[in-house]
Structures are given as C-alpha cells and as structure tokens.
Amino acid sequence: MRVTNTSDNAAIVKIMKMVEQAQTVKAPIQGVADTIAKYFVPVIVLLALITWTFWFNFAYSDLGMEHLILPQGQSRFVFCFNFGISVLVIACPCALGLATPTAVMVGTGIAASQGILIKGGDVLERINKITTVVFDKTGTLTSGKLQVKDMINVVDKFKPQLKEDQSKFN
Question: Which of 4, 18, 34, 68 gives 64 a disulfide partner, CB atoms 3.0 to 4.6 angstroms apart?
C-alpha cells in the first residue's frame, strides 16, 4: 500500500471546508440589513427613553396621581419602566440582524441534506435570477449514478418514408 495524499486533500474534507466557508460568507442583502440596523438601534433606544420619560412624568404628575391605576404591588417607577422596555423589546432589530444569516444557514443546510452544495449566501441570493437549468445527458448531476433511462430504436423511429416513385430506384 502506498499513500499518495494526506487526509487534508481528501474530497470529503474539501467539501466540508466549502460548506463551512459558505455559511460564513455574507450575502449582499445582509450588508443592507447591517446598515439599517446601525441607524435603527439608536433610534429605538431613543424612542424607548422618550416613552419611559413620558410615562414617568405622567405617573408622578398630579393628573397621574389621581387617575393612574397601578397593578397590585407595582410601584410607579416599575410601571413606567415597563413601557420603555416594551418599546425596546417589540421594536428590537435582532430579527433584522439575525434573519439573514439564519436564512443562509438554513438554506445551505437543507440544500446540503439534499446533496446540493451552495457556495455561500451571495450565491444563494443570486439563485432567484436563474431561468434555465441544463443537466448533462447521463444524469450524473441529478442522481450521481449512471443508468439507462430510455432506449430508442433508431431504425424504427427514423425510418425513411419512401414515395412510390422513389421505390423503383432502390
């Protein structure tokens, strides 16, 4: 027995590295989401602070002291703080920042389980523009196993139709 390559050069190792790299490549849309999140997060934090400030001022005002009904055992500060936190949690841009990488990971993972290797999020994003897919005639791209799908008898299929006048020349 003679070893000609190390295990690092094995096809399975190369495939594993390619799948690993595919999951780390950012899709172009992820850059857009990151840019939006860069401005969105400070705006949401500011809105949460404004909401808390408004409710804090209302709760400790004369009007709030008279008309505000607090849940049992809750202080005015905690009541107001819950409004600010609610704005922060509901408008959290985490979904924006996590949705794209999660979608890429799930998409490449499902494709890999079906035997399709996708090189990265950028490729996954460009797939929607594909209008035609051409496979080779052997079927190796679809099943990976050579097989005869159909046989056509060429003589019967393409038998020339002779007119009566031409038949005397044969």
Answer: 68
Question: For 114-130, what is each residue's pLDDT tens digit?
Answer: 777 777 777 777 877 88
The answer to whether 136 is a known catalytic residue is yes
User: Shortest CA distance to 23 belongs to which of 145, 106, 134?
Assistant: 106
Extract the tokens encoding 50: 């404004």
Find all residues with CB under 8 Å of 146, minimum gap 6, and list them: 138, 139, 140
Rg of the Cα trace of the chain?
A: 33
Contact 65, 2 (CB under 8 A): no
Give dist(CA 59, CA 79) in Å, integer: 9
User: Residue 130, SS3?
Assistant: coil
Closest C-alpha among 95, 73, 71, 72 to residue 83: 71
Choice among 8, 136, 150, 156 that is catalytic: 136
162 contact partners, CB below 8 Å, separation of at least 6: 170
List, in sequence order, the alpha helices (H) in the chain: 11-24, 28-59, 62-67, 76-90, 94-113, 121-126, 154-157, 164-167
